[in-house]
Amino acid sequence: xxxxxxxxxxxxxxxxxxxxxxxxxxxxxxxxxxxxxxxxxxxxxxxxxxxxxxxxxxxxxxxxxxxxxxxxxxxxxxxxxxxxxxxxxxxxxxxxxxxxxxxxxxxxxxxxxxxxxxxxxxxxxxxxxxxxxx
Length: 134
Known about the structure:
Layout: H1 2-17, H2 24-38, H3 45-57, E1 72-76, H4 82-97, E2 105-109
Parallel strand pairs: 1-2
Helix pairs in contact: 1-2, 1-3
Keywords: Heme, Iron, Metal-binding, Oxidoreductase
Domain Nitric oxide synthase (NOS): 2-134
InterPro entries: NOS, NOS_dom_1, NOS_N, NOS_N_sf
């Protein structure tokens, strides 16, 4: 069960870093049960947020990773229609650009689960690095 081993590694690191070690064992039991039941598991909001921050922090090629702890994570996994996803993207851009005072932000949508892919965003970044008219 490779997924479980990867989950165990992530959960252990995540909850250790956020100083909630006492939750590791019970969370791993929940994950194991979810995997047996459905073949996948869903991250909690805490795991999603800290996991995104960990990913940015460990991204060797990104100079911006120095600001990993300030990353704002928007959980949009419940967005199910094209209109909801579109609105979430617009809200992301408005929030992250913050009238020119950039806020490091990621909006996370639901993953593809068992062949059910609802949406695909073709751009890996909605807006690239600073672009100015002058």
